[in-house]
Every structure is written in C-alpha cells, then in structure tokens.
UniProtKB/TrEMBL annotation, chain A:
Membrane topology, as annotated: Multi-pass membrane protein
Tagged with keyword Membrane: yes
Protein name in UniProt: Manganese ABC transporter
Organism per entry: Paenibacillus aceti
Record-linked CDD domains: TM_ABC_iron-siderophores_like
Localization terms from the record: Cell membrane
Automatic annotation (TrEMBL), chain B:
Places the protein is found: Cell membrane
Protein name per its UniProtKB record: Manganese transport system membrane protein MntD
Main location class: membrane
Organism: Paenibacillus aceti
Domain of life: Bacteria
Family: Belongs to the ABC-3 integral membrane protein family.
Keyword Transport (UniProt): yes
Keywords: Cell membrane, Membrane, Transmembrane, Transmembrane helix, Transport
C-alpha cells in the first residue's frame, strides 16, 4: 500500500487531481462558512439535487459529454432552484425547510425522468452521467481537473476580495443596508457562488454528499474560534484535508468511491473538533461544569463553616 | 394487472408518506425526513450482511434502528448549540457515506445496486411475488407497503389528538401532560419505517418527495388538519397514477414521473389555490385596495 501511495504521488496526473481536490476543499470550506452563518446549510443539498436536470438538458441539447457544458447547465438549474425556493417561502405560507424539500425532490425527479430518457434513447455516450451520483475524483480527466481547480481558485479569490462585504451581509444585513451596501446584490452573489461550489463539488463527491463539503468543514471550524477570518481559513484547511484524504484513499483502495471517503474524513475532523475544541468542545464543557460544581460546593461548605462559627460565637455571648 | 400493481404500489407509498409528511411539514421538520431517508442506508447494508439475503423484516428493523439513531444524533448536536440545518446535514451525510462504503466494500456479498437505492425500481415490483403454500398472493412489496400503511394509519388514528397538539403547539402538549418526546420519536420511527418499506420501489430521494410535496400542497389548500391529511393522500394517489401513465407515454422512470406530476400539482396549487394561492392572494389585495379607495372617496 505504501509503495502504491508513493507511486501515486509521483504520477503527474495524480498530482493534478490532488491539487484539484485540495483547491475544491478550500473553496467549498470557505463558501460553506458563509452559508453556515446565513443559516442556509441545507441549501447546498437542495442545489446539488437540483443540478441534475440541468446536466441532463445540457447533454440532451449538445449530445456530448463535456464538463464545461454540464457545469453551465447545472449552474442554470441551480439558480432557477434558488429562485424557486425564494418564491415559495416569499409568496406562500410554506416554510424554508419544506420549500427546500419540494425543490430538491421535484427537480431531482425531473432529472431522473430526463436521465432515463437519455439512457433509453440508446445514446452510447451517456455512461458518464451516473458518475454524478457518487463522484469519481480519482478517475477524472486532466481537463476536468483544470476546470475544477480554476473555478475553485476563482471562488477563493472572490471571497478574499469581498471578505468584508460578505462578513457584514452574513452577520447583520440590516446594518449593511444602512451602510449603503447593495445587500440584495451581495446576497445573490453569495448564492451564485454557493451554486458554483456545489456544482464543482458534485464532480468530486457526487450529488448526495456534496452538502457535507459545505457544511461539515465550516461547522468544525466554528468550534475553534469566534473570529470569522480564522474560521474561514480553518474551514478551508479542513476542507482541503478531507478532499486530499478522500482522493488518496479512494485512489489506492480501488473499489471505494471518492465521495463517501471524503465525507467521512471531514466527519472525523468534525468529531475531533466537537470533542476536543477549547471552550466549545465536549471535554472543555464537561471540565468547566465539573469545576463550577466544585467551586459551588467549596463556597457552600465555606459558608456553612462560617455560619457554624457564627452560631458558636453567638452561643458564647 | 401489471399496471394495477405498479399504481397500487405508488399509491400505497404516497398514502403512507402523505400522512406522515403532513406532521413533518407542520412541525417544520421536512428536512429531517430527507435525512432519515438517506441515513437508513447503513442499517439496510448491515441487515444485508447479517442476514445474507434480502430479508425484508430484518431490513425494516435495521433501517428503523438507524432512523432513530439519526434523530437522536441530530437532537444531540442541536442541543449542543448547533443550527438544526447544519446538524441534519452533518448526520445524514456521514451515515449515508458509511452506508455507501459498507456496500461497495462488500459488493460481492450484498446484492444491492446503489442506483436502485437512489432511484428505486418500481417497474420490478410485480415480478417479485409472495408465494405461500403454492398460492400466488401478489407482489411482496404490496404486502410490505400495505402493512406499513396500516401500522401508520392505526398509530395516527389512535393518537390523533396527541399528534395534532404536538404538531401545532408542543409547549401546550407538554403542559397538558402529553409525552411530547415519546410522540416525536414515534413519528420519527414511523417515518423511517415507511422510508424503508418504500425505498425499494421508489428510491431514497423520491421518498423525500412523497413525504414533503403532497403534504405541502395540501397545506396550501386547507386550514384543517383532518382535511390536510385527506388531501395529501389524494394528491399522492393522483400523482402516482398520473406519473405511471406519464412514464409510459415518455418511456421514462416511473418514480421520477410520479414526483414530476406531484411537482406540477404543487405549482398549480401554489398559483391557483382558492385560499392560499398566489392569484387569490393577489386579487384579495387588489379588492382591499379598491375598497379602501372607495371608502376614501
């Protein structure tokens, strides 16, 4: 296993793939931090499922399997999905969670219909479509990896440039509006970037699990810090680590799909954070509680001793 | 006969999910249904590994256990101060990932297609018949789904009042001495049970659709829980019948078509519902504006 791992690192193609999943991990971790703060974590899940009809329509229209086209299609249907969710929550009494569920399942249902339509039409070129369910980063083409890396890099750069604006919009949109910022535009941009991150993530980890790429690193990072800057960087690191680990393990152990391994890597980091993080972690909480209890007991026994000595003094008088 | 069995299967799935979905939508826990439908996967895989066959009862049991574990984990994370969205996302992706890995590591032992888990194969339902003493009693799936439907129906009917109060006002329910937590877990147990019973025929993701979309559509049509349950079941039945014929017409996935029809019904209701539709709300507003103007004049 060790030698195959080393062989992997030496292979230039694999180096590119690792680089791609590293950038993807950073990008989705960074975007995920903002979606987490804006309480839209499950948006990623809905958008991932909503991408399917876009991919299918792109394939039906063009008849070729090209990642650029697929991404364009899924970004368009992802944006339509965000408008749909907004419209349902805005113009009816249905709440956000049900709106997400409706968009998710209906878009996915339409996608499944289109996909079976493509499969039944006997087009021999469709074999790659089902890769979208679970992701196969390890068997990606070089051009796909370039695309993934470049788009992730763009996401990271935009987040870096607009960091202050995004921060304000995430924490206090009302204040941001008061400052004269174009809040609606920035929110749309953040949503658009979430869609892009999801669409890129689908290639690596698949439709079902891409939500984890956005949620888990961000939540894990939140345990360690109260500063958004630190959180974003940490989430990027955790995302990168999970992406690289997932690609490495699924590449060396041949019959493991990339998505689940990546997600489990992220989840184990989450568990470590939830248990061992200072202040917010489980251990810290239990320790703090125990110490408080001890302090209370001490002060109580001290009080009792004082009372006793007072009564004894009173008895002497 | 084939048509009949498939439509019946779809209708049973829709009815079971439709009833439970109403409570999920009312309690704002629709995405918990999504989570459960994904995270039962490791339970199914473990049941496969232990039982060595597609033993339905063992699978139901494994999945129900995993469903409850999911709910407990989500609650645990929520109580530790995490947003509910995020805790749902973390739990179900992790469990689903474990399930996928279990299945792909033991591919030679598990005769379970991952595509089938996601999309289901309702078209195969009529082929897998239950044979008892040499008699053909109809498809196994019908028996399983019928049983689940009955369990759900009886449970909800028995504790209708408790479920209702818990759905609308958990605080009041607690004050009245109703064990809210117990009914919460009972509901979640039922959701995971029906997820498993239906996932073989319609797949994990479309179960979510059947849980949420008919219930949400019914929510836009009425203000009474009893009627909402009824509408939800009817909408589910229309979607599965319509979906089947649509699938036949377009030569496409049956389960996918069922959800597509359901989605169309939702959009129609969203626009044209007499009480909560977009257009009736708009005309009401116009009338009010006109009335005000007349008063002023």
């Amino acid at each position: 296993m060790m030698s195959s791992l080393l062989g992997w690192f030496a292979d230039p193609n694999m180096q590119w793939i690792l680089m791609g999943s590293l950038l993807l991990g950073i990008g989705s971790g960074v975007i995920g931090s903002f979606t987490y703060l804006r309480k839209q974590s499950l948006m990623g899940d809905a958008l991932a499922h909503a991408a399917l009809p876009g991919i299918c329509i792109a394939f039906m229209l063009m008849g070729v399997k090209s990642i650029g086209l697929f991404m364009l299609g899924s970004i368009i249907s992802g944006m339509i999905a965000t408008f749909g969710i907004h419209a349902i929550t805005r113009y009816s009494r249905i709440k956000q969670d049900a709106a997400l569920g409706i968009i998710l399942s209906v878009f996915f249902g339409i996608g499944v219909v289109l996909m079976t339509k493509i499969q039944h039409s006997g087009n021999g070129n469709q074999s790659g479509l089902d890769k979208y369910m679970f992701g196969q980063a390890a068997s990606m083409m070089k051009s796909d990896v370039y695309m993934m890396g470049v788009v992730s890099l763009l996401l990271i750069i935009v987040c870096f440039i607009l960091f202050k604006e995004f921060k304000l919009v995430s924490f206090d949109p009302g204040f941001a509006r008061g400052m004269g910022m174009k809040v609606g535009l920035l929110e749309q941009l953040l949503l658009f970037m979430t869609v892009v991150a999801v669409v890129v993530g689908i290639q690596a980890v698949g439709v079902v699990l891409v939500a984890a790429l956005l949620i888990t690193p961000a939540v894990s990072a939140r345990y360690w810090t109260d500063s958004l800057g630190v959180m974003v960087v940490l989430a990027g690191f955790i995302g990168a680590f999970s992406g690289v680990t997932g690609t490495l393990i699924s590449g060396t152990l041949s019959n493991l799909p990339t998505g689940p391994v990546t997600v489990l890597a992220a989840t184990s980091l989450f568990l470590v954070s939830a248990i061992f993080a200072p202040n917010r972690g489980l251990v810290a909480k239990v320790w703090r509680r125990a110490r408080t209890r001890q302090q209370i007991q001490q002060s109580q026994s001290l009080e009792m001793a004082q009372q006793r000595s007072r009564t004894v003094e009173g008895g002497l008088d | 006969m084939m048509d009949f069995w498939i439509i019946l299967t779809g209708t049973l799935v829709a009815a079971t999910c439709g009833i439970l979905g109403c409570f999920l939508v009312l309690r704002k826990m629709a995405m918990v249904g999504d989570a459960i439908s994904h995270s039962v996967l490791p339970g199914i895989a473990i049941a496969f590994l232990l039982g060595g066959s597609r033993d339905s009862v063992l699978m139901l049991f494994g999945a129900a256990v995993l469903g409850l574990i999911t709910v407990v984990l989500i609650q645990l994370l929520q109580r530790s101060g995490l947003q509910s969205d995020a805790s749902i996302g973390i739990v179900f992706t992790a469990l689903f990932a474990i399930g996928v890995i279990l299945i792909s590591r033991n591919a030679q032992h598990i005769d379970l297609d991952l595509d089938c888990v996601l999309f289901g194969e309702i078209a195969y339902v009529p082929w897998d018949s239950l044979i008892w003493n040499g008699y053909n009693l109809g498809p196994v799936a019908i028996w399983m789904l019928g049983g689940t439907f009955l369990i759900v129906l009886i449970t909800i009917a028995l504790f209708y009042k408790q479920f209702k109060i818990c759905a609308f006002d958990p605080a009041l329910a607690a004050a009245l001495g109703i064990p809210v937590a117990l009914f919460h877990y009972l509901l979640m147990g039922l959701v995971s049970l029906s997820t498993v019973a239906s996932f073989e025929s319609v797949g994990a993701i479309l179960v979510v659709g059947m849980l949420i979309v008919p219930a949400a559509t019914a929510y836009l049509l009425t203000d009474r829980l009893g009627l909402m349950l009824l509408y939800s079941v009817i909408i589910g039945a229309i979607s599965s019948t319509g979906g089947y014929y649509m699938a036949k017409l377009f030569d496409a996935s049956i389960a996918g078509s069922m959800i597509t029809v359901c989605g169309i019904l939702f959009v129609l209701t969203f626009l044209f519902s007499p009480s909560h539709g977009l257009i009736s709300r708009w005309t009401k507003r116009q009338q009010m504006r006109g009335g005000n103007l007349n008063q002023v004049i």
